[in-house]
Amino acid sequence: MRRRGYSTTEVFKEFSDPIYGFIRADHRELCLIDSLIFQRLRHVKQLGLTYLVFPSAQHSRFEHALGVLHLADRLYSKLGDEGDTRFRSIIRLAGLLHDLGHPPFSHTTEVLLPEEKTHEDLTKRIIFETEIYDILRKVFEFSHEEVELLVRLTLGEPESGEETLLTELITGQFGADRMDYLRRDAFFCGVSYGLFDHERLLSTVEVFHDSEGKLLAVHSSGLRALENFLIGRYFMYLQVYFHKVVRILNIHLVELMSKIFRREHFEDINSFLKMDDTVVISKAFFDDSLRRDVERIFGRKHFKEVFSTKDRDEFEGVRGFILDRFPEELLRFDSVYKEPYDDRIFVLEGDSLKSIEEVSDVVAGLRPIEFYRIYAEPSVREEVCSLLKRSA
């Protein structure tokens, strides 16, 4: 990191980053970054336990948040509002603060949040109920209404057409969040799927104006970069995020954490902010009653895959067949489903706007990712596999 400055208002730091070279934050943003609440993200792995399968996937929500700030700033420049420094600051902070509410090990343990809450709900509470709010009001001199706007953009909850355009910079189909996590995850996992041409994609993002408002699109000259991005994300889900061992480790982790933490740990913000990956690991290793859970995850004694299919009916049939013959505690069941993308994506050809499916046969041919898997305790794995072979 480098600190420079010519006056008090020009002081900034540059964070060395393997993806972008340097990420710059000004002296006010450093007040947020240096807070204990934001520093907690250093101890929340971006990909949960994926590092137990892809050893170098040790990156955290901290550097991802810096990356989203960086890309949000670059995307904001596409709007042509470079002179509005106050609004630009809100966009940058929307990117910086978007993941404050992640529980330990990120998305993996979000199922433990009470009342079907998400990390976005906790992010909102953290911004409004902690020192983050005070910093935004006092250091940035934001009004309460500006903080509310920042939160809406951070969480993808726009209240107008203009806000919809702005929130796409952060949470859109090719927004700053997805661009950064895809390149960063691919880089640290040591796989090439997600290493798309982000510079080309950034340079060809445009704002399309029509009678109904504005939206983000990619110029046709950037179609190949956009295809690369979408296909790379697709393969990252197939090969990394939905990897069979990653999935069973996640199941074991949720079981472990449900024994360590109670509902109130997630409901009280002060208690929640004391929870991170290191706390979970420390509590688990020092509690002898959790020895079996620890060995399953960190001692590589996890349940093993015995069956996999893309057919839900077949899965349900095999599931019932195995449960008739083995105790449920010796088995684990997993299902995943993911669309190639979550919303419409537009490409600008001349003066006309077209959906990505119209201009790309490659993207149009992508099908939903769907897996149904059954895992068995190692001591009965061979027996279960033999039973399935005989019944086939």
Mind explaining what this structure looks like?
By secondary structure, the chain is of the alpha+beta class. It is 50% helix and 15% strand. The protein has 20 helices and ten strands. The strands form three sheets. Strands 4-5-8-9 form a four-stranded mixed sheet. Strands 1-2-3 form a three-stranded antiparallel sheet. Strands 6-10-7 form a three-stranded antiparallel sheet, sandwiched between helices. A hairpin with a 2-residue loop joins strand 8 (346-349) and strand 9 (352-355).
Strand order of the largest sheet: 4-5-8-9
Quaternary organization: single chain
Distance between the termini: 60 Å
Point out poorly predicted stretches.
Answer: 1-9
What is the CA-atom radius of gyration, in angstroms?
23 Å
Q: Helix/strand/pairing class, anyone?
A: alpha+beta
Name the overall outline: globular
Query: How many helices in DSSP terms?
Result: 20
Query: How many β-strand runs?
Result: 10
Average of the residue pLDDT scores? 92
How are the SSEs ordered, and which strands pair?
Blueprint: E1 2-4, E2 12-17, E3 21-26, H1 27-33, H2 36-39, H3 61-76, H4 85-96, H5 119-129, H6 131-138, H7 144-155, H8 161-171, H9 176-189, H10 198-204, E4 205-210, E5 213-219, H11 223-241, H12 244-260, H13 263-267, H14 269-272, H15 277-286, H16 291-298, E6 304-309, H17 312-323, E7 331-338, E8 346-349, E9 352-355, H18 356-359, H19 361-364, E10 369-376, H20 381-391
Parallel strand pairs: 5-8
Antiparallel strand pairs: 1-2, 2-3, 4-5, 6-10, 7-10, 8-9
